[in-house]
Structure formats: C-alpha cells, structure tokens
Amino acid sequence: MIMKLLTIKNLNSGYGDIKVIKNVSLEINTGEIVSIVGANGAGKTTLLKTISGVIPAESGEIVFDGKRIEHLPPHMITDLGIIQVPEGRRIFPMFTVYENLLIGSVLPRTIKERKNNLERVFELLPRLAERKTQVGSTLSGGEQQMLAIGRALMGMPRILMLDEPSLGLSPKLVSTVFEIISKINSQGITVVLVEQNVKQALKLSQRAYVLENGMIALEGSAEKIINDPQVKKAYLGL
C-alpha cells in the first residue's frame, strides 16, 4: 500500500518580490527516492529550503504525515523528521568530525538516541570513524560530503533531502555517494534528491519531477523521465 508522506499543493515562495516557486504541487511516498531535476536557476534549492522552512511559503500547502507545516519554523520541521543536507556541505570547519555529528542531534528526540545513531553512522560511513578526531577543514571534499550526510542522519530523518550531493566530487566519489544514498534508503528513509548528475539520479530514483522556471514541467516514473526526448536533450546531452 502506497502511503503519502509529503504532499505539496500550489506552493509559491521566493525572495521578497522575486517569486521563484510558482504553484508547485508534488507528492513523496514513504520509502521511495524521488529526484527533482532541472537547469540551474530552475528553483530546486529554493523548493527544498521552502519545505525545510528556511524560506517562508507565500501561499499553498505543505503537508507532512497529515500535518500542515508550511508556517512552522525550521527547527520544528527538523524535529518532525524532515532534514536537509545543503548544497556545499556546510559543515563546521573548525569542529572535529565527532563534534559535527553531535551538532546533528541536539533536539530532544535525538539526544536520547545519540549513542545508537553514532554507531549506525560509523557503520554506514566507516571513513568518519577513522577521521573522528580530525577537524572538518582537513577532510577531502568527499569526506566532507559524507560528514554532512552523517550529521543529517544523526537527526533521525524520515525524509532526507539532499541538495547536489555529488557537486565537485570525482567520478569515483560520485559513485560512492550514490551507493550511500541507496543504502540509506534501504534502511527505510525516504529520500528527495536534487542533483546535477541527472542520469545517475534518475537511475537511483523511482520517480522524478522536472522543474522549469519554478514550475513542474514534467513528472512521472524515473524510467519515463530518463527516456523523455525533452529531458534527454536538455539534461543528458543525448
């Protein structure tokens, strides 16, 4: 039975007078990986930030697990289990790996599970265990991305939203990051993926939405999207 976890209806948001997200409606089902793809400036990051509460919704609805959340502050949305890994990793460069991870579990429901969650993160991302006492700024780009993902997992997400997780990484590390995302999803965590590597993202996903000028231009199964002539030409160079 398909269970809707996140439903967005006629969402509008932006920056002051600049409207970026225009009447966007989409659904995310429990346990799936959904990609949101589109050209630079299409509004992908703004959409994630609006779901996270970082950018306020101007109008429309965001319903998570039956509850309206579009007017909640970011920390309350995080506490419900919607957690974003931002573009550019945004780790704390002068804190150690261990300290960065602890920052991911400061809300009451996560503090009591901190020890267990640390063990899970180190099992999934053993490189972080090896680098536990290193400060963030000394990590490679791939290690920093793993740390950003690990920190998010410490918050016990029900939906993990990843914004360009492969950006700036070597092809080998890109493959590693996508393997990690697949493993996270296999543990029952729903994933929303914004990714420049469209082909790889669609291969990993069950469904996808194509965002164009802040609006949904196309939606459907990832297989349908990856074989769409418009997508092939615009995003895959085929």
Write the layout of secondary structure elements.
Elements (H helix, E strand, L loop, with lengths): L3 E12 L2 E12 L3 E5 L6 H9 L4 E8 L2 E2 L5 H7 L1 E4 L11 H7 L4 H4 L2 H11 L1 H5 L10 H13 L5 E5 L7 H16 L3 E5 L3 H7 L2 E6 L2 E7 H5 L2 H8 L2
Parallel strand pairs: 3-8, 3-9, 6-7, 7-8
Antiparallel strand pairs: 1-2, 1-4, 4-5, 9-10
Helix pairs in contact: 3-7
Whole-number radius of gyration?
A: 17 Å
Order of helices and strands: EEEHEEHEHHHHHEHEHEEHH
The overall pLDDT average reads 92
> How is the main sheet built?
6 strands, mixed
What gross morphology would you assign? globular
* Proportion in β-strands: 25-35%
How many β-strands, per DSSP? 10
Structural class: alpha/beta
Strand order of the biggest β-sheet = 6-7-8-3-9-10
Q: Gap between N and C termini, in Å?
A: 36 Å
Give the helix proportion (percent range).
Answer: 25-40%
Taking pLDDT < 50 over at least 5 consecutive residues as the criterion, the unreliable ranges are none
Count of individual helical segments? 11
Structure characterization notes:
This protein is an alpha/beta fold and about 240 residues long. It has helices at about 45-50, 75-80, 95-105, 110, 115-125, 125-130, 140-155, 170-185, 200-205, 220-225, 230-235; strands at about 5-15, 20-30, 35, 55-65, 65-70, 80-85, 160-165, 190-195, 205-210, 215-220. It is globular and about 45 Å long. Strand 1 and strand 2 form a beta hairpin. It contains 11 helices and 10 strands. The model has no long low-confidence stretch (mean pLDDT about 90). The strands form 2 sheets. Strands 6-7-8-3-9-10 form a 6-stranded mixed β-sheet, sandwiched between helices. A 4-stranded antiparallel β-sheet has the order 2-1-4-5, covered by helices on one side. Helix 3 runs parallel beside helix 7 (about 140-155).
